[in-house]
């Protein structure tokens, strides 16, 4: 009977030791899992922060480029206006319609500049420049 009790006590002690070891392993694995989750969260936060920074830089570059393009286009409009307004002679009868068209287009173009896409504005300005050059060539004859 004593040997049976001793054997059971030894078996119980071994089971308790296994349970303690398993609890220790579970605790270590939980700590490892929490650490991995924290690292993943930090990496995710860093990635989001980097994406926001890059997005902000790209947006700043886009805004700077847009302002530069708009400034160039405004300068072109002003130059065209000055060129056309500084003509030595008033517009002839045949040129009156183009002169009126010019005086109508430039103020409206400048007033509504922000409503045009850059491609539309550049195309419109190129076409208008061609129109002015054609009129200048025709009126010089």
UniProtKB/TrEMBL annotation:
One of its GO terms (cellular component) is cytoplasm. The keyword Coiled coil applies. InterPro entries: UV_resistance/autophagy_Atg14. It holds the Pfam family ATG14. Keywords: Coiled coil. Belongs to the ATG14 family. This is Autophagy-related protein 14.
């Amino acid at each position: 009977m004593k040997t049976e009790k001793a054997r059971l006590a030894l078996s119980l002690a071994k089971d308790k030791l296994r349970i303690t070891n398993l609890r220790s392993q579970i605790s270590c694995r939980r700590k490892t899992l929490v650490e991995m989750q924290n690292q993943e969260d930090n990496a995710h936060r860093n990635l989001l922060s980097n994406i926001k920074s890059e997005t902000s830089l790209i947006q700043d570059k886009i805004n700077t480029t847009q302002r530069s393009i708009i400034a160039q286009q405004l300068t072109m409009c002003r130059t065209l206006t000055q060129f056309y307004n500084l003509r030595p002679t008033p517009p002839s009868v045949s040129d009156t319609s183009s002169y009126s068209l010019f005086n109508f287009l430039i103020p409206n173009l400048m007033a509504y500049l922000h409503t045009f896409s850059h491609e539309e504005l550049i195309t419109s300005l190129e076409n208008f420049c061609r129109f002015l050059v054609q009129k200048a060539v025709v009126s010089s004859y």
